[in-house]
C-alpha cells in the first residue's frame, strides 16, 4: 500500500506545488511508483507538469463527486509520475461536498482502488483550511508543511496544526506531522534563521533539512511542463529535494516497516542547531 503525504499550508506562495512536483520527480528517479494529486482549483500542479487545465475534460473534480473512478482520470507526466489533475471546476466541488455525509473521506475512498498501484501518493492541498484540504489530510499518513522563512508566513502554522489535531481526533487518527520544510530560504539573513528557530520552539515541530534555497530556477520550470529535476538537474534546489526524497523513500518507505516490527522509532532528518545558525552557503 502506498505511503500518502499531504503537502499543506493555508498560506499561498510557500512552494507547496513546487515541493509536490519536485519530491514526486525525485522519488520517481529512485524507481518508486508515484501518484501526484492536484487538490487546488488553481490547478498549478497540473499546469506545471505539462497539462492545460482549460482543455481537460476529466479531473479530480469528477472523482471526488463519484462520477468517475480515479483510474480513468489518472494521466502520465513527462517526469515519470502519474497525476490526478485538477481544473477550475474543483472550485465548485467544495460546495457540493458540504452537503454530503462523509464528505471528509471522499478522496480517501476514491484513492482506495489505486492505492496498491503506487509506492507513494503526494497530495497538493489548496491554500485554505476548507473541505478539500481536510480531504487531503484525511487521506494522508503524514503531512509536510512548506514554510517560507519570514514572520508572516509562520503565523499560520499554529492554525494548520490545530486543523491537523482535529483531523487526528475526528477523521484520521493515523495522521502524523512529518515536519516543516523551509522554502525560499536565504541562509545569509538572520531573519530566516530566526524564523526557523522560533517555529521549532513555538510549535515543537521538526524542521526538515536541508532547507530549499531561493532560486529563479523554480520559477522557470513550470513554463516547460517539467520539474526542476529535469530543467536544472544539478541546481541546489534539485539536489535538496533529492535529499528529502531519499529520506522519505528509505526511512518511511522501507526501514519504517522493519523498525515498526522491532519497536524502533524512525524520525525524519531535522535541522540541528548548527544548521539553523549558519544556513546553506
Compute the average pLDDT.
Answer: 86
Which sheet architecture does the biggest sheet show?
7 strands, mixed
**Strand runs, count:** 7
Shape, per Cα inertia axes: globular
Compute the separation of the termini in Å. 39 Å
| Percent range of helical residues | 40-55%
Question: Low-confidence segments, ≥5 residues, pLDDT <50?
Answer: 255-281
Q: What does it look like?
A:
- The protein has 281 residues and is α/β, with parallel strands linked by helices.
- 45% of the residues lie in helices and 12% in strands.
- It is built from 14 helices and 7 strands.
- Strands 3-4-2-5-1-6-7 form a 7-stranded mixed beta sheet, sandwiched between helices.
- A hairpin with a 5-residue loop joins strand 3 and strand 4 (82-84).
- Helix 1 crosses helix 13.
- The longest helix is centred in the last third of the chain and has 27 residues, at 236-262.
- The N and C termini lie far apart (39 Å).
Describe the structure concisely.
The protein is an alpha/beta fold. The chain has helices at about 15-30, 45-50, 60-65, 70-75, 90-100, 105-110, 130-140, 150-155, 155-170, 190-205, 215-220, 230, 235-260, 275-280; strands at about 5, 35-40, 75, 80-85, 120-125, 140-150, 175-185.
Blueprint of the fold:
Elements (H helix, E strand, L loop, with lengths): L2 E5 L8 H14 L4 E5 L5 H5 L11 H5 L5 H4 L1 E2 L5 E3 L5 H9 L7 H6 L8 E5 L6 H9 L2 E7 L2 H4 L2 H14 L5 E8 L6 H14 L12 H5 L7 H4 L4 H27 L10 H6 L3
Parallel strand pairs: 1-5, 1-6, 2-4, 2-5, 6-7
Antiparallel strand pairs: 3-4
Features:
281 residues; alpha/beta; seven-stranded mixed beta sheet; 7 strands; disordered C terminus
